[in-house]
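General statements about sequence and structure are easier to judge against a single worked case. For one protein, we set the task of working out the structure tokens from the amino acid sequence alone. This step matters because it turns folding into a mapping between discrete strings. The amino acid sequence and the backbone structure tokens for this protein are reproduced below.
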Amino acid sequence: MTPQDLVLTPLGVRFQGRRFPCTIGRSGVTAQKVEGDGATPRGVHRIVGMMYRPDRIPPPRPWAQPIRPGDLWSDATGDRAYNSLVRVPYTKSHEVMRRADPMYDLVILTDWNFPDATPGRGSAIFIHEWRRPGWPTAGCVAFRRDHLQWIAARIVHNTQLVIA
């Protein structure tokens, strides 16, 4: 671990000498992640990308990709596009990336079960904005908006999310 890593602790996430409150999956942390279990997977997860809503916020990093109308994330375990970005029309199970609420205005992508997904092992583990303090996620790690933006402006491609 380095100061460049996001490290989950019982008191929040430690990053670059600061500690940020966060929320995790409603089922806590698990070593046996499966699709739909609501758990955050234990392990060391590399940051592999960043997406943002260009109609709501400026790009947080030069390498961040815009979330476009029609962007979806497949969580259809039986589909070859499982755990990847897809576009409408996509009729299988998915999450809408361009949401009405601000939760996915900024999304940091981890390498959990990505890019070579094992069906049923759990789809994307994102770092995103929380709904509100203490409100759990479906397995992702979520932060207050200003904290998420501060973190996003400072992460680099070798930053890791460490969940012990």
